[in-house]
Amino acid sequence: MKHKILSQFYCFVFVLVLAFGLSNSFKRIPNPLRKQNVQIINNANNGPLGYHCRSRDEDFGLKTLHHKGKWEFSFNVNYLGTTHFYCYFWYEDFHATFDVYVANKTWEKYCGRNHCIWTVQDDGFYLYQIQKAENVKKHDWEKIIKRVRSKTRLL
Question: Nearest-CA neighbor of 31 among 79, 97, 89, 65?
Fold first, then answer.
C-alpha cells in the first residue's frame, strides 16, 4: 500500500516536470501576491490631460489629470502572466494610445520590478527606468486630424 502511494506521488511529480519543463519558462510564472503599480504624472504645460485606462477585466473610466497631477492604480498580476493595461490619452489637439503595463520580463526590467512610472510631457510620454535612474521617451503624441464634411453633392 505504501509503495503504491509513493509510486503515484512520483508519477505526479514526473507529470509536473514534463508539463512545466526544466527550462526558464518555469521561472516566468508571475508572482500573483506581488502588487504592481502604474503611475501617471502630468507634466504637460497647457491645460488638463484626459485619459482612459483599462484592461480586459478592469475599466477605470474617463478621467482628467491637471498640470503636475498624479494618478496611480495597483493590481495583482494573474497566474497566467497575461495581465495587460493600456491607456488612451488626449491633450489639446493631440492623442495617443499605448500599453502602460504588460506582464513580462521586459516590462519588469523597464519599470523597476513593480512600479511603472509614466510622465506625460508636451513632446510625448516617458517611462522612468530604474536601472538608468532617468526618464526615457517611449511614445510621441499624434495630431488629431479634424475631418470637415463637404457640402457638395454627387449628381
Answer: 79
DSSP state of 12: H
The CATH number linked to 71 is: 2.60.40.10
> CA 29, CA 27: separation in Å to the nearest integer?
6
Using the structure block, give the residue that is written with the C-alpha cell 519558462.
25
Write the single-letter amino acid at 35.
Answer: K
Amino acid at 38: V
Sheet holding 134-139, edge to edge: 70-76, 35-42, 115-121, 124-129, 134-139
Strand-pair partners of 40: 71, 118
> Tell me, what's the pLDDT at 79?
80
CA–CA dist 98, 82 (Å, integer): 16
The residue range of the domain holding 103 is 31-139
Please give the Cα distance from 42 to 120 (Å, whole number). 5
Whole-model pTM: value is 0.72
- Comparing 106 with 74, the larger pLDDT belongs to 74
Other CB atoms within 10 A of residue 9 CB? 10
